Amino acid sequence: MSPQESSSIGKPVQTAPQQIAATIKELIVDGTLAPGDRLPPERELVEEFAVSRPTLRQALRELTTMRALTMSPGRNGGYRVADFSPSELGTSVGEFISLSIGARSLTAYQLLQVRHSLEVLSARVAAVERTEEELAELEQAFPDPAVYGDSVEEARRQDLAFHRVLAKATHNPLIVGFSSAATIAFNQIPDTARQQVLPGLLDHLDAVLDAVREEDPDAAAEAMVRHLQIDDVFGPRPTTAGVGPEPETPADA
């Protein structure tokens, strides 16, 4: 079972650690290895793959970095297959998006476009999939003017809390995970970029709740579109193609 380098035309040559990692990933994907399963001891894996211990450890480190495996020390420790949950994508993906915006390979407007689409999808799916208990949670989470008063930050916090419950009501862990990621990144955008004011911040959110209550997915989606007006938050749509800031206009133009 010794890893062999690929020499097929058009395919990149993989190192031995990469091939070992790919083999273990295939075992996870096809169900041979299930979440929580412990890998054999290193000495057995070294013999099975016919590689040195440092080569094996490099492969295991790669799998741990990509969160395919977890490692715990001790006699009963070792490497185990991670417990995968798409709903836990939020933090890592959200941080990646935030860094991309900071590096100007993404724009805040592009992030809001994606968040807009995810929230519209959440409203549509939640209107069909929500339970009575989740409807009660949505009603409980609905922003209360007696609580937020004149505070924009408190109103925004309550608005985001409502959206989290709405995503949960879809019963789709991918929607939950990616919506969480978009929200985490959105919260890290500088306030000067958000340009949010209290009037209009919560417009049409009551219509979203009404449509979800009535189990009307089309009405829920339409209300969410009205609630999340991109231009109202970030100003006019950028006119240049691609990502990052618009190029500066020459002084003599």
Summarize the structure.
This protein is mainly alpha-helical and 253 residues long.
What are the key terms here?
single chain, Four Helix Bundle (Hemerythrin (Met), subunit A), mainly alpha, two-stranded antiparallel sheet, 253 residues, Arc Repressor Mutant, subunit A, 2 strands, elongated
* Tertiary shape: elongated
What's the alpha carbon Rg, rounded to whole Å? 24 Å
**Total separate domains:** 2
Low-confidence stretches: 238-251
What does this structure look like?
The protein is mainly alpha-helical and 253 residues long. It folds into 2 domains: 16-81, Orthogonal Bundle (Arc Repressor Mutant, subunit A); 87-234, GntR ligand-binding domain-like (Four Helix Bundle (Hemerythrin (Met), subunit A)), CATH 1.20.120. The chain has 13 helices and 2 strands, in the order H-H-H-E-E-H-H-H-H-H-H-H-H-H-H. The chain has helices spanning 16-29, 42-49, 53-65, 89-102, 108-129, 132-141, 145-148, 152-168, 173-187, 191-194, 205-213, 217-227, 230-234; strands at residues 69-72, 78-81. A two-stranded antiparallel ribbon has the order 1-2. The radius of gyration is 24 Å and the shape is elongated. The relative contact order is 0.12.
Secondary-structure blueprint:
Layout: H1 16-29, H2 42-49, H3 53-65, E1 69-72, E2 78-81, H4 89-102, H5 108-129, H6 132-141, H7 145-148, H8 152-168, H9 173-187, H10 191-194, H11 205-213, H12 217-227, H13 230-234
Antiparallel strand pairs: 1-2
